[in-house]
Design a protein that fits this description.
Layout lengths: L2 H4 L9 E6 L7 H15 L3 E6 L5 H7 L7 E6 L1 H10 L6 E5 L5 H6 L5 H10 L2 E9 L2 E3 L2 E4 L1 H12 L6 H13 L7 E5 L2 E7 L1 E5 L3 E2 L3 E2 L11 E6 L4 H12 L8 E6 L1 E6 L4 E4 L2 E5 L2 E13 L2
Amino acid sequence: MTREAQSPKHTPHFRRALIVANPIAGRGRARRMAGELAAGLRADGIETELHFTAARGDATRRVGALEPETDLVVAVGGDGTVAEILAGLRPEIPLAVLPLGTANVMSRDLRIPRRPAGTIRMIRGGRTTGLDTARVNGRLSFLVTGVGFDGRIVRSIDIARSGPVTKWTYVRAVWRTLRAWGRPPRLRVFVDGERIPGEYGWVIVSNTIGYGGFMQIAPDRVLDDGLFEVSLFERGTRLALIGYALRGIFRRLPGGSCRMVPARRVRIESDEPEHYQVDGDYGGETPVEIEVTGVRHRLLIP
């Protein structure tokens, strides 16, 4: 911990903080970094409780029982930890994130610090932005839902998973999915009640600029405009999917046979069941109903 992080030089914006940490995030670094963060916040005069999650849904339950005097929640972990916290957090309580996951999509978009000292400086600043959320077949989402290619990748991970998910876990799953790729999906898309003409090989509904930690899919995305962006990929062959990924890496999306439309409500159907993922977790099979909730959370930013 740096001297800057330890020495309070101002009146803190917050009185009491709850840190919710996934102890296995960051290959086990989360426990140590959460402790450093808690010590730094206490040195800044903020009463701080540290809670380590023990099972799926634990973060949601803990913030759902938040004490009235707690006016800040801090997530230490990946996108899954953030999603669980948002599912139980009252929207008026601001959320800070110390990102320690594999993709950290939103944190990359917003250049959120990845060290406790940087998180403390961000909390001292007290600057927030709005964050829209959506319901995906009833489940809360704040990042992205993918139907088709990424849904099959995450399904592959879900079946084979035996420990923490790393970047190499994704690399291997992408390779397995491409090798096994057969008939492309034929997805029908309805936006705000209207059918989008044609059928699509891959559909992404997102509230992010980046995707997967390496692609850019929505360069003009705004987190709090009450809309998600629907990326429609016309082709679903193995070669086309590789091409879309390359275009995303070189910031050429939307473009080519990919276009984008804003939406508040989206329905995705297919004649044959197709896998989908929600914020990096396996969601199930089509049909998929996505609707922006209208609930806007407060997220601390640098």
